[in-house]
Write a structure and sequence with these properties.
Helix content is about 55%, strand content about 5%. It is built from 14 helices and 2 strands; from the N terminus they run E-H-H-H-H-H-H-H-H-H-E-H-H-H-H-H.
């Protein structure tokens, strides 16, 4: 299979399914012991140890995903599906993510489609179908699936972020800003977070307009530091319309913030390629 994909202008799907098992927030104790069993009182009988539970096929696949061994993960997910008579939509979705990480979009699309066929209300799978079309630069088709996911789960910041990015690539800038604003209103950390079952697209290598509109979205919800960071990137990449910044209603909301004032007073020199 092809090597694993890097974030594409806007896309990274990283599975965190086994993160808790490999390094959760609970205090670290010896495997198989409770907090009382970890240090038995003097004179007591030795505590019984609990044999570790053997990993299921799906859990083995999750471990391979965490290790970024996507081919191995796909193999175990397929075995898990076979064990369930191919009737587990969650595993179909995970198989799709594994294929997607290898740029095998045809197989990913089929896996996501099977997930939605088994569970028509599986919003993450609809979102992931949108992401496959986005990766294939079929932005118009991706919009359809992101909207389907949002229709099922409107309060999901990732879905709105993805839809906004498709709008951006379709040059529907007002719609893009509105979706970014909605996403940030739901979860201010949506730009940096990862999801165990849904893929998020992040537009790297985008043009100056992307950074400008992301700055607008952050400014509109009062996130001045993040807005300044994106606006600085736009200026560094050659954005040269100070009047547009001065007159923008979103930037007026943060016009008194020290970081914004400093950026406007001493804008960076555009970096030439």
């Amino acid at each position: 299979m092809k090597p694993s994909m890097q974030q594409v202008g806007l896309l990274a799907a990283t599975l965190m399914t086994v993160a808790a098992a490999l390094g959760g927030a609970t205090p670290a104790l010896m495997v198989g012991f409770s907090s009382e069993q970890a240090g038995p009182a003097a004179g007591s009988l030795p505590a019984r140890t609990t044999q570790p539970t053997e990993l299921t096929l799906e859990q083995r696949a999750d471990v391979f995903m965490a290790r970024k061994n996507y081919a191995g993960a796909a193999d175990y997910y397929y075995q898990a599906l076979k064990q369930s008579s191919f009737k587990n939509p969650v595993v179909w979705n995970k198989l799709g993510i594994a294929f997607q990480q290898e740029n095998n979009f045809h197989s990913a699309r089929k896996a996501y489609t099977d997930a939605t066929r088994l569970n028509k209300k599986f919003s993450e799978a609809w979102n992931n179908l949108g992401t496959v079309f986005f990766m294939e630069k079929k932005y118009g088709r991706s919009v359809k699936y992101y909207q389907r996911a949002i229709g099922l789960e409107d309060h999901n910041a990732t879905f709105h972020m993805n839809l906004g990015t498709s709008y951006y690539h379709l040059k529907k800038f007002p719609e893009a800003v509105e979706e970014y604003r909605t996403a940030l209103g739901i979860d201010p950390n949506v730009v940096t977070q990862e999801s165990p079952v849904g893929t998020t697209i992040h537009a790297g290598g985008a043009g100056v307009e992307f950074y400008f509109y992301m700055a607008k979205a952050f400014a509109s919800v009062g996130k001045a530091e993040e807005a300044v960071r994106y606006l600085r990137r736009a200026l560094e990449d050659g954005f040269n319309d100070p009047k547009r910044i001065d007159e923008d209603p979103d930037f007026k909301k943060i016009s008194q913030h020290p970081a914004f004032v400093e950026l406007m007073r001493n804008p960076p020199v555009a970096i030439k390629n």
